[in-house]
Amino acid sequence: MTLKEVSDLILQHNNFEILTHDYPDGDCIGSAFALALALKQIGKNARVIMTERLNKYNYIYDMLTESDFKAEYIISTDVADEKLLGSNKKFYSGKIELCIDHHKSNRIDAPYKYVDSEAAAAGEIIFKLIPLLGAKYNKDIADCLYTAISTDTGCFRYSNTTSETMRIAAELIDLGCSSAEINKSMFETKSRGRIELEREVLENMIFCAGGKCAIVYTTLKMTENLGDDETEGIASIPRQIEGVKIGITIREKENDYKVSVRTNDGVDACSFCKRFGGGGHIAASGCSLKGSLEEVIEKLKTAAEEVL
Amino acid sequence: MTLKEVSDLILQHNNFEILTHDYPDGDCIGSAFALALALKQIGKNARVIMTERLNKYNYIYDMLTESDFKAEYIISTDVADEKLLGSNKKFYSGKIELCIDHHKSNRIDAPYKYVDSEAAAAGEIIFKLIPLLGAKYNKDIADCLYTAISTDTGCFRYSNTTSETMRIAAELIDLGCSSAEINKSMFETKSRGRIELEREVLENMIFCAGGKCAIVYTTLKMTENLGDDETEGIASIPRQIEGVKIGITIREKENDYKVSVRTNDGVDACSFCKRFGGGGHIAASGCSLKGSLEEVIEKLKTAAEEVL
Predict the structure, then answer these.
(1) Among A76, A239, B79, B180, which is least packed by CB within 10 angstroms?
(2) Looking at chain A, which residue has its C-alpha nearest residue B188?
(3) What is the pLDDT of residue B188?
């Protein structure tokens, strides 16, 4: 369907709930709130459904006032799979009427779907949808959409960033969005717990295969008092090191160890993880291992030395 | 003078040397090489003068082939003050004919100056100058200019990033620049020495004033085997911590300690540093202190506790 058809469909309804995914990120929060704000502006009712509220997005939550209405139309934004609805899955399974997303891998089964995998963020799609709905951009909407796009592109750093991404961000800046403040809060603010975790991770880093493989780990004890947003991104640390071709992050879970593998220079992370029953993409894959931490490290070291 | 006048002036000459500043960054290197490439394209001779070659910019150095000619016209790019020419000052002092820069504080004394302090990077000025010279953009020039603009804006993160910055970056992406690879190498690659330094810095971090002030330090021993590009950016670490209003970085030098002060929420870094004979901007200032490391830390802690 075209974005015009999405807009026509939305305009036939009046009372919306917009679903976001579990472990909410800037793109799902920013996209959902921008859409809700636009819908309220044109006289509709809308609320955003979340599994949890993270303090870092308070400036966005505050934009939308709660109102009492019975929802009749369910839209999901940035949700690639029903299982990502988390604790909301039991209420909303099979009830999504319109799915708006940018994940190529989208597996939502809904009567209407608009998936643009060229978009760096779902926020880019909402940016284009808003004028079709007859709503006007304003600073709040611009702040939501800037948050969506800058977080999903690592502040315009990742390879998903297109020239269109940059032009949309330019328009959002012209609309007066607080780009510098949003970037500071999203990318340059770390809790003391996070700083302590980074220190411990760096302290315990293991190199093998002549420095071409770096392994870091977090234990349940290291992360026991931290929120999900404080532990995210650790997996990007080992691959950043000069000369490292395989960066491995081991996270202790209740029953096993979750392993994230990130690679450089074309080393195949997916086939590496397949050795352990996992998989993923060529430069970013994952698997799970059982045993003691020492055993898990030893297995991964041996595999890395064989590959490199 | 207008950019058209800058272009007319340049077109009257044939053999150029383009000066960069000491401790070269992506903006001075990218701007100087983009200009040199454009000049060679229109049949002129040009070379770039640097105090040192950093490996991270090898992909840029390789774009320009050395040629033998006697320079008759000296242009500086991104150089705010003659003293920033470093070891080249003795050869080029008083010889700059045309100064192209974006620093409001520019103090170069040259017959012709074009300073646009609205530009986030000198690279933005060179981007606009190139078509006026009758040169055509190409991938090499786009890679130089993207490097210039992305490094001086912290990958479009800092408050100097304007909508024009984003639109220029969009055009560079459309020209085929290797934006993702450049960002990876500039922002996501760290040497093992740098990682070790970060670990030590985090390990020794001191909090005071009820967590509103964080102090980190580097000693000569900690940095003895590291290049300048491996130690840069440490000063941004303490201010990133949630709740920190004054972030202080102490760097041991041969004869004293150089102190960088970065603040949040309007705390005046400049007046803080003036207590110790230093100064700077409201959110970023510096000063020098003598004594033992313990004494220096104690003085700064006392001052922070008084201010907060």
Answers:
(1) B180
(2) A240
(3) 86
Q: How many angstroms separate the CA atoms of A153 and A146, rounded? A: 11
CA distances, B121 to each of B26, B31, B269, B281 (Å): 10, 9, 24, 19
> Which residues pair with residue B285 across a beta bridge?
B261, B280
The per-residue pLDDT for range A152-205, each reduced to its tens digit, is 999 999 989 999 999 999 999 999 999 999 999 999 889 999 999 999 999 999
Q: What is the percentage of chain B residues whose pLDDT exceeds 70?
A: 100
Residue B166 forms contact with A (CB below 8 Å): yes
Nearest to B25 by CA among B294, B228, B242, B302: B228
Contact, A273 vs A287, CB < 8 A?
yes
Structure tokens belonging to residue B67: 């040629």
Cα–chain center distance at B99: 17
Between CA A232 and CA A251 the distance in angstroms is 11
- Kindly report the average pLDDT of chain B as a whole number: 95
Q: Which two tokens stand for residue A177?
A: 């969005």
Question: Which two tokens mark A77?
Answer: 């934004």
In angstroms, the separation between the Cα of residue A69 and the nearest Cα of chain B is 38
**Residue B263 · residue B246 · CB < 8 Å:** yes
Give the mean model confidence (pLDDT) for residues B5-11. 98
**Positive/negative CA dihedral, A238, A239, A244, A248:** positive
Of B161, B239, B242, the CB nearest to A191: B242
Q: Are strands A112-115 and A246-252 parallel, antiparallel or unpaired?
A: unpaired
Tell me: the pLDDT tens digits for B237-265?
999 999 999 999 999 999 999 999 999 98
How many residue contacts between A and B have a Cβ separation below 8 Å? 108
User: In this complex, is the C-beta atom of B162 within 8 Å of any C-beta atom belonging to chain A?
Assistant: yes
Q: Looking at the partner chain, which of B167, B179, B242 has a beta carbon nearest the beta carbon of A167?
A: B167
A241·B190 Cβ contact <8 A? yes
Reported as a pLDDT band with limits 50, 70 and 90, residue B204 is very high
| Burial of residue A261, with CB atoms counted within 10 A of its CB: 0-12 exposed, 13-18 middle, 19 or more buried | buried
- Measure in Å the smallest separation between the Cα of A51 and chain B Cα atoms: 24
CA distance A244 to chain B (A): 10
Chain A neighbors of B241, CB-CB under 8 A: 189-192, 195
Q: Which of A157, A188, A211 comes nearest B187 by C-beta?
A: A157
Closest residue to B192, CB basis, from A155, A169, A241: A241
Q: Rounded distance, CA A256 to CA B9, Å?
A: 69
Instruction: Give the confidence band of B100 by pLDDT, cuts at 50, 70, 90.
Output: very high
User: Is B199–A203 a contact, with Cβ atoms under 8 angstroms apart?
Assistant: yes
ipTM: 0.89
